[in-house]
Amino acid sequence: MKAFFEGIQYLFVNILFAPLDFLRRLELITWFGANTINWIFMIICSAAIVYWIKQLRIFDDAGTENQDTTAHSFLK
């Protein structure tokens, strides 16, 4: 049973956390390099929010949005 838990420890510490260890070492060299992935995620999220707001505006301008308070059965 001890070998099983040591195997789980090896998996997480040496394999699955390797990218995080790389980013930790990279931060000592260059802060911008270590935070590049954060900037990429922020750009993706910003693009998704802009797309979502544009789609909401299209449906609002077309008048197809059902804004009746009884649109769901649980609101009756």
Concise account of the structure shown:
With 76 residues, the protein is mainly alpha-helical.
Structural commentary:
The chain is 76% helix and 0% strand. The longest helix has 27 residues. It has 76 residues and is mainly α. It has four helices and no strands. Keywords: Membrane, Transmembrane, Transmembrane helix. This is Uracil phosphoribosyltransferase. Pfam families: DUF6341. It comes from Flavobacterium chungbukense.
Share in β-strands: under 5%
- CA-atom Rg in angstroms: 24 Å
Average pLDDT score: 89
Number of strands: 0
Percentage of helical residues?
over 70%
The number of helical runs is 4
Structural class: mainly alpha
What series of H and E elements makes up the topology? Answer: HHHH
Low-confidence runs of at least 5 consecutive residues? none
Instruction: Please report the distance between the alpha carbons of the first and last residues.
Output: 57 Å
Largest sheet: none
Principal-axes geometry comes out as elongated
Protein name: Uracil phosphoribosyltransferase
Transmembrane segments: 28-53
Keywords: Membrane, Transmembrane, Transmembrane helix
